[in-house]
Amino acid sequence: MSTEAQIDAALEAVVSAARHHRAVLQAGAPEERIWRAYVALNNATVRYDDLISEIYDEVTPWDCEYLESDGEPEAPPAAPPDRSRPTGGVPVGDGALMVSVRHRRDYVIPEPARLLSLATEARGTSWAAVDSTHAARPVTDVGEAVNELVQAGDGTVAALDAYPEDLVPGNGVLLVNALHRPLTFADAPASGGPDPLHLGPDETQLYRMDEEIVDEESLDDPVPTPRDPVNGSAARLW
Predict the structure, then answer these.
(1) CB 60 within 8 A of CB 48
(2) 205 assigned to some structural domain
(3) Is 66 strand, coil or helix?
(4) In which domain, by residue range, is 143 found?
(5) Looking at the domain assignment, is residue 179 inside a domain?
(6) How far does Cα 149 stand from its chain's mean position?
(7) Can you give the pLDDT at residue 225?
């Protein structure tokens, strides 16, 4: 990856982390989720600042140090790790690697009719200046409603954090897999192609993180202990 591409990717990571942090705050999420979002934003900022300093010998207005996501912040390493060189996955040429990050999160919808109403309102706002006909079309099913709410936010699952009473989050899982072929849409599942979320026979799971929803009021320690990755040696590389 070129140096300019590294900077572009680091900047996009800062923007994405900032949007997610704001969405978590808006949703009134538990303190542990707010802390993780804060750490992600902090570390993305540090990475961008490091690249600006290294490549242009300039500085940003931010004065941050790397933080660990679990427990209290720890002292940062003497030198930030070089994250421009991936250390897991499958080589695809010129030292680059290819991985697939797959995230599942379950939700309970207490009042489906209310969700459809919220999505219809979001569609009207988002599409009013683009396609008035589509903006006026009501949302009629739950899948379509979730899509509208995601698109009305930042385009990621994090956008759903803004509706904690209408989409009550359940357990989730994040998987990082090494793969040999990039995702294409030439063969969609509807035409008999493979499921894009299915792990192929020649693909390898590198890391798994379980996100377990716990009733914090029933615990002495409200912060759940992360489960061990299914592949410890690979997970340590990330």
Answers:
(1) yes
(2) no
(3) coil
(4) 110-162
(5) no
(6) 16
(7) 41
pLDDT at position 120: 93
Answer whether 168's CB lies under 8 Å from 108's CB.
yes
Measured in Å, how far apart are the chain's first and last C-alpha atoms? 18
* Residue 6 pLDDT greater than 90, yes or no: no
Q: Determine contact, residues 135/124, Cβ cutoff 8 Å.
A: yes
- Reported as half-sphere exposure (CB side, CA atoms, 13 A), residue 54 has a value of 14
Q: Spell out the residues 6+ positions from residue 186 whose beta carbon is closer than 8 angstroms to its own.
A: 193
| pLDDT value of residue 140 | 92
Model pLDDT, residue 25: 87
Encoding tokens for residue 92? 């695809």
Strand (E) or helix (H) holding 176:
strand 168-178
Question: Which of 21, 73, 83, 20 lies closest to 50, judged by CA?
Answer: 83
Would 22 be classed as within a structural domain?
yes
Which residues have CB under 8 Å from 146's CB, separation 6+? Answer: 115, 119, 160, 167
In angstroms, rounded to a whole number, what is the distance separating the alpha carbons of residues 217 and 193? Answer: 46
Whether 47 has a pLDDT exceeding 50, the answer reads yes
Q: Give the pLDDT confidence of 163-184 residue by residue, as tens digits.
A: 889 999 888 888 888 877 777 7
Domain count, the chain: 2
110 pLDDT tier (thresholds 50, 70, 90): very high
